[in-house]
Amino acid sequence: MTEINASDYDALVAVVDTYPGNDELVAAIQSSPGGIDGFLDQVFEGLKGSFDPQKAGGEQATVQYELTAPDGRRGYAMRIADGRCEVERGTAESPRVSIKMGVGDFLRLIAGRLNGMTAFMSGRLTVRGDVFFAQKFQTWFVRPS
Predict the structure, then answer these.
(1) Which stretches of the chain drop beneath a pLDDT of 70?
(2) What angle do CA 78, 128, 137 make, to 5 degrees?
(3) How far is CA 11 from the centre of its chain?
(4) Tell me, what's the pLDDT at 19?
(5) Do the Cβ atoms of 86 and 104 come closer than 8 Å?
(6) How far is CA 62 from CA 24, 87, 103, in A?
(7) Inter-axis angle of helices 35-50 and 103-110, to 10 degrees?
(8) Is residue 110 within 8 Å of residue 47, measured between CB atoms?
């Protein structure tokens, strides 16, 4: 796979659409420059850039992402406060909500190719903490049409 800018929503959607199965998608990302870590870093940069502080309405929260890949777990802590969204690798101490899923499903969810409720009901997405907040905070990010 050639290097792409995964923080670009259209580029992310194109990559997700290229690989019909999660195994193929994750394998392609693993073999790309930067591997899974570099790709996910770019995706989270894109999320930061699509954050709309007006939609958050002054709320503050920390969201923990636990993403599983064939070679291990990846943790990302997203902190939303004071009209900003910051993301860093690692584990947050007291997240309001924790979201756990496979890397392939996460990328399909972000790309709009997987419905969050469907993923949750089928066990592909696990939410711990404030489930209602998990549904609400996703609307704070602008997805290009």
Answers:
(1) 1-7, 145
(2) 45
(3) 15
(4) 95
(5) no
(6) 31, 10, 20
(7) 30
(8) yes
Nearest to 82 by CA among 50, 64, 49, 60: 60
Judge contact between 64 and 100, C-beta under 8 A.
no
Backbone angles phi, psi at 66, to 5 degrees: -120, 105
At 118-145, the pLDDT tens digits run 999 999 999 999 999 998 998 999 877 6
Tokens of 49: 């850039």
pLDDT at 143: 78
CB atoms within 10 A of CB 81: 13
Whole-angstrom Cα distance, residue 140 to residue 47? 10
Using a 10 angstrom Cβ sphere, with 0-12 exposed, 13-18 middle and 19 or more buried, the burial of residue 123 is exposed
Domains and CATH numbers, the chain: 9-135 (3.30.1050.10)
